[in-house]
Amino acid sequence: MTGAIRALLPGAAVLVAAFLLYVLTDEVTAQEIATTYALVVYGAGFALAWVFHRSRAFIALGLLAWLDITVVGRPDPSGAVMALGTVVVALIGVLGILRDRGVGSRVGLLQAVGVWSVAALGGVLFSDPARVAGFVSGPEFLPLEGAGWPGYPQLTLAVAAFAILSTAWGFFAYRGPVERSLVWCLVLLLIAMHPDLETAPSALFLMAAGLTVTIGIIEASYVMAYRDDLTGLPGRRALMQYLDGVKGTYTVAMVDVDHFKKFNDRHGHDVGDQVLRLVASRLARAPGGGKAYRYGGEEFTLLFPGRTRDDALRHLEALRSSIETSRFAIRSWKRPRSMPEGEKPRKAEGGEKELSVTVSIGVSDTVVANGGPDVVLKRADQALYRAKKKGRNQVSK
Q: Is the dihedral of CA 190, 193, 196, 201 positive or negative?
């Protein structure tokens, strides 16, 4: 899945679904849907955010639920949604530049108390219909016709610009599912706030915003469980799940970084992390259709579905050689953490030391092992041990 598609999902799908419900249902049905499923969405989101230590999602869901409950029964629901919604938009923008903590931790509680206290003050401020009317009609500080464009007060537009920029920065800085969900939450919230919508459609889009955040928590928990944070590769749990369902012939290669402990002892753990990321990047582009996983520590796994051991050997030898000939520079404080797009790797500058790394590889397949995944993995691990015993930096079967 490309980065552009990943940025659109699942928020775009939720937006389309909410729009279709808005178009295809009457106001009574929309209100019933929003009332019935909002409890499920917010309740599930709160529980998941608590379990998976997602304080920002927990706080954002609390803001949406508060807004939903507060505007019901107001004499001027559209104005109340606009005024209180602007407060929520600003606070979600603040959440976009914070980091997640455990909901029950000291920092998590401080985040929740701080954000919800501001929301409560906003609720008190806009409990007066006259203040709500004054907010909707002004103030104007941009040369736009009317109170704002397109239908929003100018202050709401300014707050929305800040919130979108801050949540977008969080997404591009950290690329996490929760960060992405906050961006889409803002989009759906701003739609819910539009003065042309009645109370029922507004509640429908508010629920959709909460659903987007809840899905973001679920996706983040999946990534945490199945993907290695350091290398970006799928982890051991993902490998075992895949092996449980794979059929037919396949080859497993166990890949171990040679003398990794010496790298850590001599150059420090930061350099060790660079080594692991370098090897992982090569494995992710393994020839022959190999699927790379981080098995644990300095050990990786390559899976070749549909290939025998002999079929995979030449691809593994080419991979071993490419890692051996790779060079990387120990980062100095001046060196950027990521290479600008389109720029080629450069040679080390003064103060940066170039290092190389090698790997040992053990290979087995379902034909030779004649057993299930555990047997194939054990035979591959035994072959890896033989490769190391023979002197490392080689492929053994």
A: positive
